[in-house]
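Dear Dr. K.,

Following up on our conversation at the group meeting, I've run the structure prediction for Aspartate racemase from Flagellimonas eckloniae. I'm pasting the input sequence below exactly as I used it, so you can double-check it against your construct before we proceed with anything downstream. Let me know if the numbering doesn't match what you have in your notebook.
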Amino acid sequence: MKTIGLIGGMSWESSKIYYQYINEIVKERLGGSHSAKSVLSSVDFAEIERFSFSGEWDEIGKLMEEQAKNLKSAGSDFIILCTNTIHLVSDAITNAVDIPFLHIANATGEAIKSKGLKKVALLGTKFTMEKDFYTKILEEQYGLQVLIPNEEDRDTLQSIIYNQLVKGIFTEESKEICLDIIKKMEAQGAEGAILGCTELPILIPEKEVSLPTFDTTKIHAQKAVDFALN
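The predicted structure tokens came back this morning:
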């Protein structure tokens, strides 16, 4: 079994779910008392948030480079970044270390293609929805058509994520707002919905969505275990 290096803390609310999923999947596949070999390097999300909103992505890249080097030094065989948005600076990780890095958009693209879908909605932070670091992979490498919500709904999602979800606040009102946004995207032809913020699957139960949903946290965790056990 390879040792999984996790860069977490963005936010810790979803990082704990990553750890849970990874160990549950290992136990399911290997049985007995097996658990995952892993190393977690966790950041202070307040710093990440501040740099994100001021557009200082190079500073975030430096933090990710430091975390990647820490994980390699601690014995990690490969790295996953336990967030969607900060994959915007994933090059800082791949340039810093010579161990594999598993990109969340690749894992998500594979999962969507396996279901035979062509057009999907992407929900997440404004950075994930509006910049091309995520959609470009889905469109160019997996041939998907990616729909994003209108500007008002993107602002709403941004507010829910940063003012509630990353602080551990999950309300029925916010869940209903997100479900309404997904319905709008379905009316535009979306065949599935990417929950492209690692906290969103905590808020939105799969059973309450009329479309197939793609829980990026669980998909990424599954990919990490596949790689660790291969």
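Two things stood out to me. The CA atoms of residues 12 and 166 lie 8 Å apart. Strands lie at 4-8, 38-42, 78-81, 119-123, 145-147, 192-195, 213-215.

Best regards,
J.T.
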